[in-house]
Structures are given as structure tokens and as C-alpha cells.
Design goal:
The structure is a homodimer of 452-residue chains. Chain A contains 21 helices and six strands. The first copy, chain A, is mainly alpha-helical. Chain A folds into three domains: 6-131, MgtE N-terminal fold; 145-249, CBS-domain (Roll), CATH 3.10.580; 281-451, SLC41 divalent cation transporters, integral membrane domain (Tetracycline Repressor, domain 2, Orthogonal Bundle), CATH 1.10.357. In chain A, the strands form two sheets. Chain A has a three-stranded mixed β-sheet with strand order 1-2-3. In chain A, strands 4-5-6 form a three-stranded mixed β-sheet. In chain A, strand 2 and strand 3 (182-186) form a beta hairpin. The longest helix of chain A has 31 residues, at 386-416. Chain A is elongated and about 95 Å long. At the A-B interface, helix 3, helix 12, helix 13, helix 15 and helix 16 of A face helix 3, helix 12, helix 13, helix 15 and helix 16 of B.
Amino acid sequence: MLELDNKYLEELHTLIEEGKGSVLSKKLSSLHPTDIAKILNQLKRDDVHYTYRLLSDENKSDVLVDLNDEVREDLLGTLTSKEIAEDVIEGLESDDAADVVQDLSEEKLEEVLSLVKDEEAKSDVMDLLTYEEGTAGALMAKELVSVEENLTVTRAIRKIREQADNIDQLYTVYVVDSKARLTGRLSLKNLLLNAPSTRTPISELKNSDDLVSIKDTDSEDMVVSIMEKYDIVALPVVDAEGILVGRITIDDAVDVIIEEAEKDYQLASGISEDVESNDSVIALTRARLPWLLIGLGGGIGGAYVIGAFDIVSNPMLALFIPLIAAMGGNVGVQSSAIVVQGLASSSLNTSNILGQLSKELSVGLLNGIICSTIIFLTTYVLGFGASLSITVGISLLCVIVFAALFGTFVPLALEKRKIDPALATGPFITTANDIIGLIIYFSISSLVSSFF
Amino acid sequence: MLELDNKYLEELHTLIEEGKGSVLSKKLSSLHPTDIAKILNQLKRDDVHYTYRLLSDENKSDVLVDLNDEVREDLLGTLTSKEIAEDVIEGLESDDAADVVQDLSEEKLEEVLSLVKDEEAKSDVMDLLTYEEGTAGALMAKELVSVEENLTVTRAIRKIREQADNIDQLYTVYVVDSKARLTGRLSLKNLLLNAPSTRTPISELKNSDDLVSIKDTDSEDMVVSIMEKYDIVALPVVDAEGILVGRITIDDAVDVIIEEAEKDYQLASGISEDVESNDSVIALTRARLPWLLIGLGGGIGGAYVIGAFDIVSNPMLALFIPLIAAMGGNVGVQSSAIVVQGLASSSLNTSNILGQLSKELSVGLLNGIICSTIIFLTTYVLGFGASLSITVGISLLCVIVFAALFGTFVPLALEKRKIDPALATGPFITTANDIIGLIIYFSISSLVSSFF
């Protein structure tokens, strides 16, 4: 398999521009589908359509899965229903196929399904589309290998052979009872050690001690935490009656983990939709504007706070507005980030909010005393005067302690109300702390000046 | 396997306090090691030591792997060398064992190794400890199943049986030549389909077309990107001569992915060390102070900028200092976050910095024009006067565009110099944009006031 480098990439671009189909087709066939998708993601619309048609049937299917949502939707619009039936529903594993076709209009989807010749592939995809997004059912694939527990080893092996052809990678053989209910697992290792000539029933070979499964209606998050905890590569999915309906492989769980981490990161950075650097200017602007508008509102609020105090008669106070605002924001973001990560990794829960707050109080006080002392000494030595130095020093201590408590409390409170705690991070905490920090600063300034 | 809930947890805590060893030991044995580790992470030192000794031998080993670094180090200090030899080196897979013992002092480690009876386990761990952290070699485990390609199927199966006992989960059988060099893979599925009575040599059954492997000196990041790209659950590792030296399983790659995501998130949130919410107050303070000191420096810089302009004769300018500073910070963080994520997912590279900047210019202009128009109209309607409204409007546009470009350029420039681009996110970008934003604001104010 060829590795993709910049030189090779340029060569391909030239071939696409010159429309040299046959050379291009040969070059592309030596690349991995993931790499081909990466190239297509960066091409202009027409070039995407042109290049896609040069791919081998197998690559066509695999490339579709790896394309960006925008590019894929556009490309699907140019394919006939028959092409979608063949490239997607018959060419992919059921979970990938369902992911690709779920954005089609109901009409188009019906037409596509009517053209699928492989009845099993068709019913598998139709079944998967009935599950709500975010559930184990929507994540699972229907392809799996299972044997009834009353079969003998010899007959079970024949059964396994029949089913194994449809499967990319055979992780585990599941054992079911006569009503198709999951009762255990059969490791190939075990089957291999017990030579296939035996007449022992599978029920005696199966392992049901450490059988872990998940319900089709359980959440993605639960899938991830179970697979992580038990280090398993394929998780069987059962319905309400315990009937084996599918299996989730570790690569799908990894996708969920990466998606979750990206979402938290984007929320912390003030990006509200799932965008990527190669999305369109409009999509990028739309994802970023909401948080900027919140910041704008905060800024106007800040202007009112400053206006409410007598800045005109004491303009020197203006000098440390950026310091107070920035420090409140920084501390708040740090505190909320630690809570969000703690909740995500389950090392923290909402049963002990007071304990967490009292710990954060210590951290805030410690950081606050260090920073306040530094800023008091610095401003005093630099000649900003005793009154201003004392005001800035005391304010900074109060702002840091308050921001630490506030940044800890908000995500914990959200979690308790079953709202995504990551919403508390980023611009929200920063904006709130900006305004409250200013109020603290000007209040303390009034207090201090009444003493001098 | 029992699920852990709060009630059960309380019950355990009471038993620990009351020192009811035998009941406790029985209760703990029904829990998963990961859950036991979670409980220990939250206990006081002495309780950790007490509870650990109540665990079964197997659980002792597995729990050690899942403990927080701090708790584990402390616990290891209370174990004898013989206990470490048995619980860790003989009780764990080689990669986990090497992870646990790598923090021991050289002296202690030597003593522990001298007490290990299992020669293979000992040499495996010693071998793994020679690899630099962050490399594929440091991530891999030595336990694997391999057969020589000139063996017949019957003899290969015997060989596989011998080796398979040491392995938790048998993913793949590797095929090597007479010099132990990796030449292919043998799927159990394939072996099963070709009944074990045949005399065919393994070389005819092996699959070497899509064989993917990695060098022991390659980086963790490369391991992750290869395993993600090819959706493989076990990656063979070879040395410079192509000799098979180990294998990396997907659960280890998942750990690396989670660690990387956490690190980027912490950097974006201004936390400089790897801390968790249940670390000590001192550890938490130490991790957060460096970025606060940078913010402090930035705040003092900001004071100088404001002082350099004539704030006393135009104190109304102070009202919008928080707005300008906050918006510059927010936009900068958004831009750098998108770049950092793009680089992490390889959807972005440094070959086209100018293209990325020109796209960001469009996004910045679009967001800037919308925000500036809103703020100009709002301040004008609210009666802040034409001069101030125009100053704030124009400044905001300039600040947003500049911050967008700056936030995009810095992480790209760092990546080009092989420095972690995530360093650019969070407090660094915010602080820099604060100061530059103030300079822009006051410069434009001087310009505007010269016209009025």
C-alpha cells in the first residue's frame, strides 16, 4: 500500500485537471480508500464527481464512508438510485451503509431499497435505520457469526464457515439458544484446541462467565464506557427479549470517543457546530458567530458596569481592567475544564459538589494569594500608587477565588440537571467572569478609596 | 459482574472503616478491577494499603494498572520486592507490567527483577524498558502468537496451542520466516476453513497482501493513525531488521487517543500538567499557576498600553476595553482550535498556510462585519455618541480580523517548526490578542478623534 506524500498528491491533481482518466484510475487503485477520500475532500465539486467514477467498485464503497458529510451528500445527489443500491447497500457492511443512506430523502431511499437485489443486506439496513441516533442499535452492525448451543462442534464449524464469508474480521462466535437469545461466546481459540472431530455440543464449549452485552436502546456513551472498561473488541447487542440483534466493533467505539473529545474541545473553544478546517467559509462563520454574539452582549454589559461607576473621576482604574477581566476568565476556564474532564472520565461525580468546591476554594486561594502578592508588589514598585496597588491586589484575589468556585459549580450543576457540562466551558464562563470581575474590581475600588 | 452504584459504594466505605476484612474481601471479588481501582483512587492512604491486601492475586495485578499514578506510586512503595515481582511482572501482560515498574528506582527494579521466577516474563519486561517513551516499542506487548512459514498446518496448530495459553485475546497469528522476520498473517478463520489434517505449508495459507506493520522506533502518533486508518485491532511491531518483536492492541491505541485529546483540551484551557480533579491541591495549583503568571504579565502589559494613550482626557474609552479584549480573545481561540483539530485529524497540513490564512480572512471579515455593525448601531442608539460608536465599530472589525489571522498562523507556524501546535491555544493566544487588541483600539480612537 502506497503512502501519500505531497509530490504524489500534486501529480494526481495535475492528472485530474488534464482529465487523464486511465492513468489516474491506475494511480488511485494503489491508494488506500481513506487516502482517496482525503484527496476528494479537497477537490472542487466537478472534480469529485469525475474522480469518483474512476474508482474500482470496492473503493467506491469504502471511499464514500470516509468522505466529509458535505462532500458525500453532494456526491450522493449525483448518483443514480441503482448506483447507491450497489455501491452502498450491497457494497458496505450494514452499519456503514445505514450511516451513508440515512441522509437521503424518504422517496429516494425507498427507490434505492427497491433496487437492492441482496435481500439480507436490504433488511439489515432497513432494520438499522429504525434505531434512534446515539443508541447502541444505531451504532451496531448486523453482520455477525452465531451458532446454536445444541449443535455439535462439527456442525457448528460448518455453520461458522457459511457465515464467516460476509465478515471482514471474525472477532467472536456468539452462542444462542433455540429462541436466538444470547447465552455465551465461543472463542475460535477454544474451538481450535478442541479438534473439530468431537461430537460435544457447543453448550459445553461456550464461555458464559464473563459475557458482556448491551441493550439496543442503551446509549453510545454506555457502549464506549463498557468497551473501554472491559477492553473488548466486539460487543454483542441484544433487544428487550435478550435476542442477539447485532454487534459493535471497537473501531466504531473509537469513532464515538474521538467525536466526543472533539465536541468538548470545540465547546471549550467557542465553536458551536461540528466544523472542520476544510468546511466552507459560510459553515465556519455560522459555527462561530453565536458565541461571538454572546461575547458582544457581555462586552456591552461590561460597558454598563464601568459606566455605572465613576470612571471619569478616577480614569487610572481603566489601566487594570484587562488584567482583572483576563484573570477571571483564565481561572474560570481552568476550573470548568478540570470538572468537565473529571465528569467525562467518571473520576468525578455530582454526589459531592460541596467537597469539590471546598477543594477548589483552596486551589483558588493559593493561586490568588500568589498572584495578588506579585501584582501588588509590581504595581507599587512601578509607582502606580498605594491606593491603586491595594485595589488591584485585593480585587485580583477576590476575582480568582470567585472565578474558581463559579467555574467549578456551573458544570457540576449542569451535569446534575442532565445538561452537557461542556456547555459551561469557553465563552460562557469567560463572559460571566468578565462582568462579575469588573463589579468586584470597582466595588473594591470604592471601598479602598473611602479609606484613603 | 456487578455494576457499581452509590449505595454499594457507601456500604464498602463503611466496611473499610470498620475493618471488616472478610466481608469486604468477598464484596470486592464480585467487582471488576477497573471499578475497584476507582474506589481505591478515592480512599485515604492507609485505607488503600489495607484494602489492596484483601484482593485476590489476579485482581491485585489488574487493579494496579488502573490506579491513578499518584496512588499507585504510593502503594508500590509499601509493597515488598517479592510482591511486585509476583503481582506485577508475573501477573500482568508485559506492556502493563513495564508501565507499572518503570517509575521504580533503579535499585528497587533490579531487586524486583532478581526475584522474578518466570524467565520469559522477566526478559520481556527488561526488553520493553529499553524503549523510549512515546515510541511504538514502549507501547507494545511481547506476548504474541507466531508460526514459521515452512510448518505444515498440523504442526502450526500444535505450535499455536502452545503459545495461545499466555494470551488474553488471540487476535491474529503472525507468520515469520526462518530468521524470525515478519512475512504475513494467518487468520484463524482461514485455518479453520482449511481443515487441520492437510499437509500444506503455512506459507501457502498466509496472507501478506495487506500486511501492515510498524517499526519499534516509530512514534505513538504513527501507531494511532495507522490503526485508525486501516481499522486493525492488533498491529505487529518489527525492529530495524524486520524481525517481529511485539504487537500493539487497539485498547492501547485507544488510551493514546484519549491521552492526546485530554492533553490538547488541557492546553486549550490553560492547564500545563496532566492533572485530574482528584489530584492534590498542590498538584492542581502547580499545574495552573504558570498560565496565570503569563496572564498576569499580559495584564501588566495591557496597563502600559492603556497608560501610553491618553485615557485621562478620554475616560469614556475605558467602557469598551472589556469588549475589545474579550472579542479578540474569543476569535483567536476559535481560530487556533480549528487549526489544532485539523492538524490532529490530518485534514489540514502546513503545505498551504497562505490558503488557510486567506480562508480565515474571509471568515474573520464576515464575522467582523456582522459584529461591528451590531455594536455600532447598539452603541449609537444607546447614546454613546458618534465618535465613540465609530471607534468601537471599526476597532472591533480590525481586532476580529487580526485575531482570526493570528490565531490561525501561530499554530501552523509551530507545527511547521515541529512544536506541539496545541501550545498556541488557550492563554497564549488570548493574552497576545488582548494586548494587540488594545493597541488597535486606542490607535483607531486617536485616528477617529482627529476627524471629529
